[in-house]
Design a protein that fits this description.
Blueprint lengths: L2 E9 L8 E16 L3 E6 L12 H12 L6 E8 L9 H16 L6 H12 L2 H9 L2 E7 L2 E7 L5 E8 L5 H6 L7 H19 L3 H6 L7 H4 L6 H10 L4 E4 L6 E6 L3 H13 L4 E6 L7 E2 L1
Parallel strand pairs: 3-4
Antiparallel strand pairs: 1-2, 1-11, 2-4, 2-5, 5-6, 7-9, 7-10, 8-9
Bound molecules: L-homoserine.
């Protein structure tokens, strides 16, 4: 029964909506084998809440791989042990999908290559920015063109540490996308295009200071502020405590502060700012993860 370990991911990195994502050193583990009927066990994060029938997204992902090679009607036994908090903006659904895909692909002797895995995972998730780094590790830039996903993997800058403030409440991506406008202004679009371009150039040149300055966003975060109580205050607190940049992690509600090396005061002040707004949160310091989903 192959065991697959899949990293958490933080999507968007501020301005790179549906485009940028980075893997983090926090993992879910999935074991998978063929079975006579669907059997799913879930322990850890999401235990008791994650569906344990064939509607489970890891299960559906495994089926999708089998169907891709013409094997229909196969059932699976899945054992999921999760460390990634669910519906918090740290890529829990991407990890489940990628775990199911990679596990099923292993059972079949790896008929799907990496490109097919990224495209299939994107089809199941709806956007590529979490699934691509969950598969490849590192920092991944991706673009979805009618179902075909183009991507490039970059090494995250050295010395970068992500401090995440994970609120106790959940926020579904669907809800967090429902508040986004259908149209944005030309100047807001230019604002984001220039930030993403310079963000990538600064990563390439390992210029952490510039990277920090290029993480502001006008396309999604301003619209999501009402969904995350205390968000603006937490952003200010992290910056004042010395973070290089602060962003909503994926569609939230987790707030992610990027720091040069470890900075314990950043997490502390973020937790205090959330608490002032009546929100309890867990603080974790996570390093970028260089490896994507892997059989262990
Ligand atoms: N790019 C997606 C969003 C990420 O912000 O809605 C969801 O994790």
């Amino acid at each position: 029964m192959p065991l697959v370990r899949v990293p958490a991911t933080t999507a968007n990195l501020g301005p790179g909506f549906d485009t940028l994502g980075m893997a983090l050193e926090l993992y879910d583990e999935i074991r998978i084998e063929e079975a006579d009927f669907p059997q799913i066990e879930v322990t850890g994060e999401g235990e008791g809440a994650i569906p344990r029938g064939p509607e489970n997204i890891a299960y559906k992902a495994a089926q999708a791989v089998y169907e891709r090679v013409g094997k229909t009607g196969v059932a699976f036994r899945l054992k999921m042990h999760n460390n990634i908090p669910v519906a918090r903006g740290l890529g829990s659904s991407a990890a489940a999908i990628v775990g199911g895909l990679v596990g099923a692909n292993l059972l079949l002797g790896n008929p799907l290559d990496q490109e097919e895995m990224v495209s299939l995972a994107t089809k199941l998730e709806g956007h590529p920015d979490n699934v691509a780094p969950a598969i490849l590790g590192g920092l991944v830039v991706s673009a979805n063109e009618g179902g075909r996903v183009y991507y490039e993997r970059l090494n995250p800058p050295e010395g970068l540490v992500a401090v995440v403030a994970i609120p106790k409440f959940t926020l579904s991506t669907r809800m967090s996308r429902s508040v986004l406008p259908e149209k944005v202004s030309f100047s807001d679009a230019v604002f984001n295009v220039s930030r993403v371009a310079l963000l990538l150039a600064s990563i390439e040149n390992n210029n952490l200071e510039l990277m920090g300055k290029m993480m502001d966003d006008k396309l999604h975060q301003p619209y999501r502020i009402p969904l995350v109580k205390g968000m603006a205050e937490v952003f200010d607190a992290a910056r004042e405590a010395g973070a290089l940049a602060v962003a909503l992690s994926g569609s939230g509600p987790t707030v992610i502060a990027f720091c040069k090396d470890k900075q314990p005061q950043v997490g502390k002040t973020m937790a205090q700012a959330f608490a002032r707004n009546g929100v309890n949160c867990v603080i974790r310091e996570l390093s970028p993860c260089h490896r994507g989903a892997v059989k262990i």
